[in-house]
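Open question from group meeting: does this chain pack into something compact, or does most of it stay loose? Before anyone orders reagents, we agreed to write out a predicted structure and look at it together. Recording both the input and the output here so the notebook holds the full record.
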Amino acid sequence: MTPAEKEAVDAFRRDIVEPSMTSLVMIDFWAEWCGPCKALTPVLEKVAADYADKGVKLAKVDVDANQFIAAQFQVKSIPTVYAMFQGQLVADLTPARTESQLRTMLDQLLRQLPVQNEAAEAEAELEPLIAMGEQVLAEGDATRALSVFDQILEIAPENAAAAAGRARALVALGDAEAAEAALAAIPEDAAKTPEVERARAALALAKDVQPVADLSGLAARAAANPEDMDARYELAGGQMAAGDHDGAAATLLAMIQDERDWNESAARQRLLTLFEAVGLENPWVSAQRRKLSAILFG
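Structure tokens returned:
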């Protein structure tokens, strides 16, 4: 190995291999005369900037100035883009020529590799605070829950889980308009998370159900005339509005058992919305789903 080659190897180890011990490094083998390389550069730079807080770095290797390094990696044509983690090549990113393709490949790698990143660390720090807000909300103190989620969003304005929790607290406080605005402000890339979907379901449910002044009287009327499906449906809505999830589920399940297709399966749709609002991972929802399955497929 010549002194120049040794210097190139030392620089490669310092600038690329060592950072790859904790980060995912995209290695772009390029040359000044390469047109496709120049076309790809803006894509790589933009994605690297967007993924910086996820632990992704971009390193460029000029194959003319670093022929020895290029030969070691058996670079036959350019642009060639590899991903390195902990000193090992983990993927060939060369086929990704668009931003969307590159993001898809990086997302897959980041799910599989223990890459250290600021975003994950920040999210881990916020998890206990979000859990506290959820617990307070579950205990019925929506005002305090709203305060907790507001404080979290001051620290991390783009945290989707906190924004969704805040929207659900607003729903619980009866401010559907503010909840809708809060959900609309969530970035599009986070709008499909389970937390946001749950908040949307809670909002939809709040708009759909109405409090019933004489809930016991309505329950008696529905029990006296089971064929009055409208009364039973109104009863379920009143039970939901009162926070009686067990009663609402029982009413809706009985309606589905008696006439599952009534009003274009309205009872089942309302029950599914209730499941989403409570949270699909909640054990209560799992138990109610089993009851629904027994009715539909039993």
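Observations to bring back to the group:
The CA atoms of residues 48 and 259 lie 56 Å apart.
The chain has 14 helices and four strands.
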